[in-house]
Amino acid sequence: MPKVSDEHLAARRRQILDAALVCFSRRGFHQTPMQAIFEEAGLSPGAVYRYFKSKEEIVRAIASETLGGFAGAIEPGADGDPLGPVELLDRFFDFIEGIERRRDRLRLAIQAWGEVLHNPELSDFVRGLVDGLRTRMSATLREAQDRGAVDPELDTDAAARVLIAIAQGFAVQSAWFEDLDLPAFRAAALSLLSHPAEVSRLRDDQRQKETS
Predict the structure, then answer these.
(1) Which domains does the chain show, CATH number per domain?
(2) I want to staple 92 with a disulfide (CB 3.0 to 4.6 A). Which of 6, 9, 167, 212 is the partner?
(3) Which long-range contacts (CB under 8 A, 24 or more apart) does 202-205 make?
């Protein structure tokens, strides 16, 4: 029997994941039977099960590649310039707007976030991926602090959580509203992060409240 090339295996895997994305987006994760994925992909059950044993495995694969794309998007460029909150969020937006099958992926992401609340195995998996992304972002912000490009008093872990939350909000708004003005949303979010003097004033006010 001739050996199947890596390119063929990758293409078949991509075919299954894309079919699943369409099905999950159209019918929802729980309402999509594996048979629907077989039909959308144009493959036999055996061909699909060779790559994925269940819907959960397919969701994990999609989540891994999506969050892996986010991680890749925030890697420093060749110029090595420090990445602060604005730059990180800007890269998040670039990735979200340019991702393949964006609407299908965002609709599935929202479903997966809900599933995390009552599916322990998926919860551990997805939260682990998000925690890994948060840790990398926090380290990136600390590097920017060391180079004097970010407020030295910034809690980098909390900032990373906030940036992820904004990206999640962007995903929800994009999935809910097909007519969402993406450039306006993006510009407003970046503008809110572009006033360090105001952030410093708010922080001082909060400290005063805590000590009064």
Answers:
(1) 1-53 (1.10.10.60), 55-211 (1.10.357.10)
(2) 167
(3) 203/153
